[in-house]
Design a protein that fits this description.
Number of domains: 2
CATH architecture of the largest domain: 3-Layer(aba) Sandwich
Strand content: 5-15%
Number of helices: 17
Shape: elongated
Largest sheet: 7 strands, parallel
CATH superfamily of the largest domain: P-loop containing nucleotide triphosphate hydrolases
Distance between the termini: 38 Å
CATH class of the largest domain: Alpha Beta
Strand order of the largest sheet: 3-4-2-5-6-1-7
CATH topology of the largest domain: Rossmann fold
Number of strands: 14
Structural class: alpha/beta
Length: about 425
């Protein structure tokens, strides 16, 4: 299959050729034709599968077939969960539309809104946005979604994880009922299907390669270790291996900051990236990681979603995610494009349940090692630490000592507050 056979216009084919692409990826082959036919599409595709071009190319084709040159209302809206992903999608839109008479813009929080408003007022055909800034500008009268013809919800599963459901519902009410809808998600969970039914009309469902095949080409390893010895072990592994580019995942923002400081104290250049960091700090950290001035990038799941880091050799789970699918997302950032990759997980006793669930999901037993001097604590409990117990300090910027003294009867309320706080920290 070639891009020509997919029915894309000549200007798009020129842009694709300029980027050096010759053959569409599986998700592009499956998604582009039904989108060009004007159908709603529900697609399962992970980051790194070429999914962005899977909706960007046909979207640009459709809009260019019927240009609005005098006044340019927002005709296509791409909604993304994070600033980094929004910037990445926008970059793709700009590249693929190089030879088309279409204008695009990207808006997200953490930066001055005035230049964004000025760009929109000049007229844009395609708007890429995070929910927070989009709704803020709409409420100010700086933009209108009443002429949207195509709506793309990207990384829908992460949208729900971040608590954006209510914002998505608000955005839906601002658009015309008659429009084409495209929804991309790494997983087809029960919640995702429920959301899809509320947005899509008789969708064509497409799926790339089975979700977990990526883990088969990545060398995975578990180090069983006492919780208090994790920091020492990760510093030893990176130093002894002389690793130059390592992406490390923590479960909380507080944990990311703390680990980053320990790395720097040990003489390892490191930077943290999470929702509480300013957009400038996040951009600087990622740039340093890519150019080699920063050896270790410590990130939370939410902040790392959408990061475009090619040929990443090492991923370390300093803490296992409590959602098994997130493990697949994390380690899938290495071993891309046929390159070798290594994924290491530091597992303490209280993460035993998480490890079991992950191995069940990927249908394989991950090899386990123990490093002398960093042995696991034989007396530690294997019960997972529940939200609201000893980890509140990393849940958000407003957490304090009062959180840890609340009794279990308040856990449900705390959990709700934490979700709202996390959404606020990352809403863009």
């Amino acid at each position: 299959m070639s891009f020509e056979l997919l029915g894309l216009s000549e200007p798009l084919l020129r842009a694709i050729s300029k980027k050096g692409y010759e053959t569409p990826s599986p998700i592009q082959t499956k998604a582009i034709p039904p989108v060009l036919e004007g159908k709603d599409v529900l697609a399962s595709a992970q980051t790194g599968t070429g999914k962005t071009a899977g909706f960007t190319l046909p979207l640009l084709h459709i809009l260019s077939e019927n240009p609005k040159q005098k006044y340019r209302p927002i005709r296509a809206l791409v909604l993304t969960p994070t600033r980094e992903l929004a910037a990445q999608v926008y970059a793709n839109v700009k590249e693929y539309s190089e030879f088309l008479n279409l204008r695009s813009a990207v808006i997200f929080g953490g930066v001055n809104q005035k230049p964004q408003v000025a760009t929109i007022r000049q007229g844009v055909d395609i708007l890429v946005a995070t929910p927070g800034r989009l709704l803020d500008l709409e409420s100010q009268g700086a933009l209108s979604l009443k002429r949207v013809e195509i709506f793309v919800l990207d990384e829908a599963d992460r949208m729900l994880d971040m608590g954006f459901l209510r914002d998505i519902e608000r955005v839906m009410k601002l658009m015309p009922d008659k429009r084409q809808n495209l929804m991309f998600s790494a997983t087809f969970s029960k919640d995702i299907k429920k959301l899809a039914y509320s947005i899509l009309n008789n969708p064509v469902q497409v799926e790339a390669t089975p979700e977990n095949t990526a883990v088969e080409i990545i060398e995975q390893k578990v180090y069983r270790v006492a919780k208090g010895k994790k920091t020492g072990l990760i510093i030893k592994l990176i130093s002894d291996g002389n690793w130059k580019q390592v992406l490390v995942f923590t479960r909380t923002k507080h944990g990311a900051n703390k680990l980053c400081k320990k790395m720097i104290s040990a003489g390892i250049s490191a930077a943290a990236i999470h929702g509480n960091k300013s957009q400038g700090a996040r951009t600087k950290a990622l740039a340093g990681f890519k150019n080699g001035s920063v050896r270790v990038l410590v990130a939370t799941d939410i902040a790392a979603r959408g990061l475009d880091i090619p040929l990443l050799p090492h991923v370390i789970n300093f803490e296992l995610p409590n959602i098994s699918e997130d493990y697949v997302h994390r380690i899938g950032r290495t071993g891309r494009a046929g390159a070798s990759g290594e994924a290491i997980s530091l597992v303490s006793a209280d993460e035993t349940t998480y490890l079991r669930d992950i191995q069940k999901l990927i249908d394989m037993k991950i090899p386990v090692e123990i490093v002398e001097g960093f042995e696991p604590d034989p007396n530690a409990s294997t019960e997972p630490v529940k939200p609201g117990q000893n980890r509140n300090q990393g849940r958000g910027r407003n957490s304090n000592s009062r959180n840890s003294s609340r009794n279990n009867s308040g856990n449900k309320k705390n959990s709700s507050r934490n979700r709202n706080r996390r959404r606020s920290d990352n809403r863009g």
